[in-house]
Queue: 2 jobs
Job 1
Amino acid sequence: MIRLLCLLLVAVSMHAGPPTALAIRNARVVTVSGPVIEKGTVLVRDGLFEAVGTNVAIPPDAWIIEGERLTVYPGLIDALSTAGMPDAAPATGSARTPAPAPAAPQQPRTRVRGPEDRPSCTSWLRAADQLDPADRRIEQLRSLGFTTAVVFPTRGIFAGQGAVVNLAGEKKAMVVASPAAQYLTLSTGGFLSFPGSLMGVMAYMRQMYLDAEHYRAERDRYNAHPAGAKRPDYDRALEGVIESPRILLPASREVELDRMTRFARDLKQPTVLYGGTEAYAAASRLRDAAMPVLVSLKWPERSREADPDDIDSTRTLEVRERAPSSPAALAKAGARFALYTEGQSGRDLKLAMKRALDAGLQPLDAVKAFTLAPAEIYGVADRLGSIDKGKIANLVVTDGELFNEKTKIKYIIIDGAKYEPAPEMGEEVAR
Amino acid sequence: MIRFAILMAAAGLALSAPPPVVVENATVLTVTKGTFKGSVLIRDGKIAEVGEKVLIPPDAQVIDAGGQFVMPGIIDPHSHIAAESVNEGSISVSSMVDIHDVIDPQSIGIYRALAGGVTSVCVLHGSANSIGGLSAVIKTRWGKDAQGLLLDGAKPILKMALGENVKRPGNAVALYGDLQPSPRYPATRMGTEDVIREAFTEARAYQKSWKDYEARRARGENPLPPRRDLKLEPLVAVLEGKCLVHAHCYRADEILMLLKLSKEFNFKIAALVHVLEGYKVAREIAAYGAGATTFSDWWSYKVEAADAIPYNAALMTRKGVLVSLNSDDPELMRHLNTEAAKTMKYGGLTEEEALACITINPAKQLGLDARIGSIEPGKDADLVIFDKHPLSNFAKVQKVLIDGQVYFDRDRDVSGRAERELRKKALLDKAKQREAEQKKSSARRPQ
């Protein structure tokens, strides 16, 4: 019986598994963690980096990719995504954007009395459980050079727990780390349902984290001496909150970046801000507060439906002009930041990236903001984000400088398995 | 070496401290200490000396206000400028929310208020519910961030409200496409009283749970602390006199109800807000000791605001009520001096009494009269310079100083307009250019 199982396993791995070893030699290797190797070899075995350098012996069983004229980067990480999440709301990161509709109207509708009723809360939802590997956006992201995304359920105020996922393979093998963070929004219900205002959401969050602290203390006390004590109630909303190692708070405008930095101190939670549109105006303060920011590459633009006779305010115009300089400003200040595509692809993403680079973002800083920086922010830099021995073998191989308009992506390697950009998506990317 | 270090330290101090400021040759309207021609000396953001003659330090920055009028910065005790949210209207007791969380320092209303001579503002929660949220007292320090606007040391102020806004009977709301009556309790004035009584009853029980906890700890026990409740904490602060209450009200009957209810729970209403029928129960308000903050001549925007008269402020003042005027509106806020002047026309308040309605009286209602509200040594140097007497319709604000610093200067504003126009035009041109480029590149894209 055992022998048969072994045989079967071997058969399966021979049939579907990637080659156990893969070497890319004589390529330009951008390790991100160390200096660029102009002519080097990356050796991958069993889905991990086995060796990187100029002097790597290639074992006889390794498949070889000739790396002449090719550049190898760590696989890109989309730091905030809804790829693979069924009916997620867009992650815009501002209190001023319209509130995403609740996932499903609760019937019959009961009146919410306050934070104690846990409105708009699905803190226990896990992206890792919700993941749909057949979602077309996963292949789309992969074709753009992304090997990994940090995906979140995004509906409601306490939307749920994200996961760091690799963008290929079987569902059970995709999850790299979970839970990655709790996704918080500032969506409100007007006069109909608590919380109906920005200050209401903030009060709700504050109460929730105080409740979590109390819940934990009560639970620990009971578990230490259950005999003779009343057992505390179970609260899945607080369980979800407690399980999350950090929180994501939306902050796009300058006032929001300052407000949420202060608020995070109040909540006493490890925090990452997302949005970051006006980070150009707050970069040094974010650095001083050691507050990491995920910057959306969707730069603010005049709506296509806007009345052509309306003239925007100077402030609005200035924000549109300066927003793409946010990544450069953060890099210059030495603040921690990562970039996310906010669902853009093809030409839109190329243009958005070009504007950030034109505004002074150094190409290497851009690469870091899509690799090591998000890995560090989510606490997975021990396995992702750079080309180093022992880390997960995620790579993107190009025929030139990444983010250059003419550059084409040749291969994407995820967990040591080689993929090529989907033809129609590759076309789109190439243009 | 040590001497050198001391010298350097002294030099550093001298550099960091702003130079003294003297406003000279002005008609000084102190509000509390009379009116005279003279000067004001400012040191470290505070008023140092006021008089017909003050000694001008050699390093002082001198502002010649010859022929002009200096008054204390105007204080608006009821406004909603600079708040990104005003009402948590979904529930009847929302004391867990705090305007401090949502101050937007880039709100243009701040600059406009400043240009109207307003230097301190109580940014209140709205009046959608019986017990609203905590308010924020700010100074109009245009250009500072949200923290930089706060008037530090101000006591917390809780907003309460009575009447039509909070009961909203039959107010239809769209729920899944259908119009339905608002499901929120209360629907009547009786219900409002009940909501407030219930909230403070709950607060008393909460206060007791903490007292019991402290007592058990004092006995050497190790109990689990009670769950902190952000809704009840401000109410306990009210019961303990650590938080002021400003209560929105219109009708005489509801005013008396609230005064009685607060006595039942042994807390004090610091100010009745709007209080348009205050003139009917002025004696009772004065006996209780509550302040009243009202409009000069703005009424009939709803049924409960119908029985109002422009003599309200003057009549209440004559009965011994501490009266102030407020704007509740970003436009009205820009000419509170004119509103004050109306109390002279309607009811014959003196110049000083009229000015007190927008300076020292609101300062007292906010518990800040030791800091702001008059031109007296030791107070914050918040000053407005008008070209004419501020109670004249023709007076224009020339300069506004907050903590001794010039935050508004009419000449600077006017002369900067051309430059701002140019900057805007450049931005518009750039935006157009960008749009054109994007169109071009999308035209190249195969369809």
Note: Residues 4-16, 98-108, 426-431 of chain A have pLDDT under 50 and may be disordered.
Job 2
Amino acid sequence: MTLPPGSEPVTMSSSSRPARTRRPVVRGEREPTGRIGVFLCRCGGSVDGRLDIESVREKVSSMDGVEECMVMDFPCSMESRETIVNVIRENDLDRFVVAGCSPKAVEARFKSTAQESGLNPYMVEIANIREQCSLVHNLSEATSKAGLLVEAAVAKCSLLVPAPHHRGRVESEEVLVYGNGMSAVVATDELVSEGAKVHLVLPFSPHRLVFNYHDGIRPGHLEDMRDRITDSDLVRVHGHSSVERFEGEPGAFTALVRSSEGAEEIRCGAAIIAWEASEVPSPSLNGSLVVTQAELESIMDQGRVPDRTVMITLREEDTYCPERITHIEALRNAIRMKEMDPRVQVTIVARDVLAFGLSELDYREAMSRGVSFIRTEASPLITVGDTVKVRVKDLNLGEELSIETDLVVMSSWTQPYDTGHVAQVFGTPVDREGFFIPTQVKLKPTASIVEGVFLCGTGVESKTPSEVVLEARSAASRAKAMVSSKMEWGGAVAEVDPESCSACLTCIRSCPFNAPFIGETGKAEIEIGLCQGCGICVGLCPSRAIQLYCYTDGQLGAQIGALVGRVR
Amino acid sequence: MGPRIVGFCCSYCGYASADLAGRQGRTYSPGVMIVRLPCSGRIDVLHILQAFRKGADAVFVVGCLEDNCNFVNGNFEAKKRVQEVKDILDALGLGAGRVEMFNVASNQGWRFPRIVEEMTARVEKLGPNPLGVIADDNR
């Protein structure tokens, strides 16, 4: 994405955030009694009317353990949830089932309802009788299926145990930013503007931070930002330093920062790895006739434009090449050359021009200004004599072309070289090329595998400077949000039974989030703050020593039994 | 109600695609019972075998698209376990085709009914689960 010159994404400072108005009432959790309440939803006609809810109620109310079974209009509404709280208290229920919409839509609400009525928030089970039943089956089918679904939910619910959960303030509200360039500066600036205390760890002196300008960022802007953060009271800059050790859990990490003057332990609530890739030295540059795009820019800065130019934006097969970035760069420079002198010939050799988003406009403009494009698969052959000849196979013509030119411009690439050590210290994996691997680009942008550690910069993926700015700000906002909110963890988390654990390390090797570790007793333990509740370790454990709260083998077995083990 | 089929669905993609199918009104056989898992990686050989022992005619596991799992590699773990069950079913003579792993995205509501169709067709070919009769008799 390209931003208009001088503009920057709007940021939300901490002072402009609306205060939370409603606070949930949390009281001491009650002792389990095994008494179940079932609340069936009519859902304004999308459940009732499409299935016979009364017959479901009759069927379910006779089940063992069901003390109360009632049909409600919208259990998820505020009034109905107050009714549920009262019913739970009056009947001394310790768990309940809600049958209605998908749990994905309503689970969070009923968890807080459970908490408001003094129960563990994970003592709720939702039966999906709308999306997966009443909306897709006819009346008689839906009625009998809904009966089974609610029975299965009751069967699972009767085996629920209070799950460990914790809600508290973070131990440290400081954020560690470990970086080597632009994204570190932008992330630190964003954190400072939101009022966070920052430890900025740099492998060199802060004055050696240099920036790459184009793509709409005002020249000097980043230098100003650098000076602003190095002068800020909120920022402690650790120059010539590296992070040697990083451990703990979200909200309470400890980092060992080593500099030439010695090592220091830093407490922080979250960390941002803001690593920039460095330029790959191009192997085949040959004198002044073959240059890089950056060198072309400096030639143009001197007011000179060669008559004939060929830009090559691809590399040998199987080598990493961020084509989108090189194409954006080539298009921009080709347009600039045509602007300086419309008579010059510019040819761009590409596998396929990847200019999407607003750079599509650059592609159109380059076409209309007469830049020619050659589509090819293999890297062209360059021979340098008095002039330069480029031999390239044009896929559209199906013929080999030999182009005589005055200048060949090769795209250069960036690649992170020194990320292996960082990755090892923080426990975030890198790929074959050395780029950090983000977990979920769409669902959790900037998140790394380690909860509380965020990623940004070109060390994650090649991107344009304005994308770097956006991403660094996003990482900073997420880190700040994390350290200023109350940390919540627990719920569906895995737990090891030390009696059964044989310390075989299977869970430690299989966990994507580095949550299991061998504790002081020599048995595996799971760090509750890092466990994301996927349950991968549960099925792999050869000693069957691990269980996942809310999805134990017993609970799932009861659910499966109720769903299929019936004569129909 | 048609063949008894159990679908183990990961919360992020499989379950969400079934929900979407429902909201879009895409109908499928009512014999399909969905069990929600946090991630398809939570599936255990035990759960699939339990379903067959109780009389399920077919079982399918739905995870996120490959390389797109919310828990990094849960769907690959699930795939391995489904393969283990296939081997067991073959050894038992029940037919490896009774169990299958699918990968869908949460926005692919249209795929869920197709998965059900596919599994229903397989049950029609393989016949009902012989263990279902025993499970029903013992009740």
Note: The domain at 5-137 of chain B is CATH 3.40.50 (Rossmann fold).
